[in-house]
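Bit of a strange request maybe. I'm writing a small parser for C-alpha cell strings and I need a real example to test against, not something I typed by hand. Could someone generate the C-alpha cells for this chain?
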Amino acid sequence: MCGRYASSRGAHDLAAHFDVAEPPAQELPPSYNVAPTDPVHGVVQRASVRRLVVLRWGLVPSWAPDTRGAARLINARRETARDKPAFRAAFARRRCLLPADGYYEWQRDGTRKQPYYLTSRDGAPLAMAGLFEVWAPPGGERLWTCTILTTEAADELGHIHDRTPLLVRPQDWARWLDPAVEDPGDDLLVPGVPGTLDAWPVSAAVGNVRNNGPQLVEPLVPAPPFPAPQLPAPLF
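Reply from user aminoacidic:
Good idea to test on real output. This should exercise your parser:
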C-alpha cells in the first residue's frame, strides 16, 4: 500500500512537467509527509483540457452518503478496481496522475517497523496512477477526492512491503487521462522497479503526521557503535 508520500514541487513546476495548460489557483505548500485526507495536487483531463487540480486524498464515491469512509479508501488494488463499486465508475471515466517526489513504505522486522523512502533515480517526479471522484452533498460544496492504485511489489522491492503504487510512464499519460477511453489497458500501469527507483531507510519520525520537512527523506544514519569498555591496566 501507499500511506504516506512526499510532494514538494510547486504548482507551476508540476504544470510545466505534466504539460498542463493552466496551473490551479490554489498553491499547496511543500509537504514531505503527505497523509490521508490531506489536500494534494492531481493531474486530470476534462473536456480535452489537461488541468492541475487540488484533490483530497481518500476517495469518496459520488453515491456515498457522507465522507466518513474516505480515510479507508486511500488505495485501490489494481486487481479489483475495475469491479469494486467504490472505484468502478472512476476507473472507467475519472483517472488521474498524482505527482510525488517519492513515497514511504514500512518494513516489518518482528514487532518493529522501519520506514523506507522510495524515489525516482533520475530525480523526476513520479506519476502515480490515481482515480478521482467529485462528491456533491445536497446544498453543499463539491469535494474532489482521489485514491492511488497499487499492485504487488516486484521481488526486489517486496522485501520492504508487498504492495507498491502503480506508475504511469510519460508516453502513456494522454491515454491514461483520456475520459473517452473506458479501459486504457493494463500495459499502461507499471510498478516501480529497481533501476528506476532508489530506496533507503529513513527516520521513524515520518510516522507522526505532525512532523514535516526535508529531513524526513534523508537517509537514516546508523548510530555509532558503543566504544569497547576500557579495562584497568594490570598492576603487575
